[in-house]
Amino acid sequence: MPYSHLLVPSDGSDLSMQAVRHAVALAAALGARITFFHAQASVPVQVVGLGEMLDATTMEALMSASRKDVERILEESLAVARQAGVSADGEKVMSDLPHQAIVEAATRLGCDLILMASHGRRGLVGMLIGSETQRVLVQSPCPVLVYR
After folding, report:
1. Helix ranges (DSSP H) in 31-142
2. Average pLDDT of 25-40?
3. What is the pTM of this model?
4. b/e string for 43-59 if b means 16 or more Cβ within 10 A?
5. CA distances from 120 to 13, 28, 32, 54 (A)
6. Of 147, 5, 20, residue with least CA distance to 78
7. For the sheet containing 113-117, what is the strand order?
8. Strand-pair partners of 144
9. Which of 2-6, 104-108, 131-135 has the lowest mean pLDDT?
């Protein structure tokens, strides 16, 4: 079955950006288009559990930095697609459940393949949030290609 619309979630990690490049190469070979996707948490993961220890100004500064990081991640992904001549869009949403946002986006956008990295974050942060890829595999309405 030829795929025509790939959803490519990215968290900006090295492995995730490798998955972006792989997705662009696949889309170019298939003549498919891509939607790059990022689900931004309402609270940056780095501050989970610090709640009362942060004042509003610090929290807003962290959220602003997080929004800029999301823009950078999407722009880098779109630049890879542009360079390869692949049609691509970028989409971001606010969600504390990235796997759910990815599954909803695939359904809403009519994507017929999700291509994502096997993992992004490592260490304690990775343990706290678990494997978003695993959750997408279980809930996806379409095939999922996991890049390792």
Report:
1. 56-84, 98-109, 123-129, 132-139
2. 97
3. 0.85
4. bbeebeeeeeeeeeeee
5. 5, 24, 25, 26
6. 20
7. 88-94, 33-40, 5-9, 113-117, 144-147
8. 114
9. 131-135
State the CB neighbour count (10 A cutoff) for residue 147.
Answer: 18
The two structure tokens encoding residue 26: 């696949």
Amino acid at 9: P
Which token pair is 78?
Answer: 């779109």
Lowest mean pLDDT among 60-69, 80-89, 126-135: 126-135
Return the amino acid letter for 78. L
Q: How far is CA 40 from the centre of its chain?
A: 9
- Domains defined for the chain, CATH in brackets: 5-41+73-117+133-147 (3.40.50.620)
- Measured between its terminal Cα atoms, the distance across the chain in Å is 22
**Is it the case that residue 36 has pLDDT exceeding 50?**
yes
Position 115 confidence tier, pLDDT thresholds 50, 70, 90: very high
Q: How far apart are CA 39 and CA 37, in angstroms?
A: 7
Supply the Cα-derived Rg of the chain in whole angstroms.
Answer: 15
Query: By the 8 A CB rule, do 40 and 66 touch?
Result: yes
